[in-house]
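Dear colleagues,

As part of the handover before I leave the project, I'm documenting each prediction I ran so the next person doesn't have to rerun anything. This entry is a single chain, and its sequence is reproduced below.
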Amino acid sequence: METAMYAIPTAADILGVTPAALETALARGETIRSLAIACGQDPERMTEAIIDAETADVVTLARIAGFGADAIAEFARELRAYLVAFVTDGAHVADRLFETRTLQPV
């Protein structure tokens, strides 16, 4: 899965840095969670802010595309799992999760 669309800008805004600076830190091996803790931010708040930012558009687009409530709920659960892994452990861990779950495109 490509890096979540809103994760970097949302995290950067909460941390008070530019998206480019955040991406540089992530490339060095930091995680959004570790950066949140280092900056005195609540990592759970950070995670929920990213999940909220990502999920709203996905759910809306899925409804527009005609997906049923069960399919949307399942995708939202998997998106949440992906984003928690992304924030906590980094893109490489989240991408492995994506590769082994039903988040796969059909």
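The longest helix spans residues 43-64. The helical segments are 7-15, 19-27, 32-38, 43-64, 69-89, 91-100.

All the best with the project,
I.
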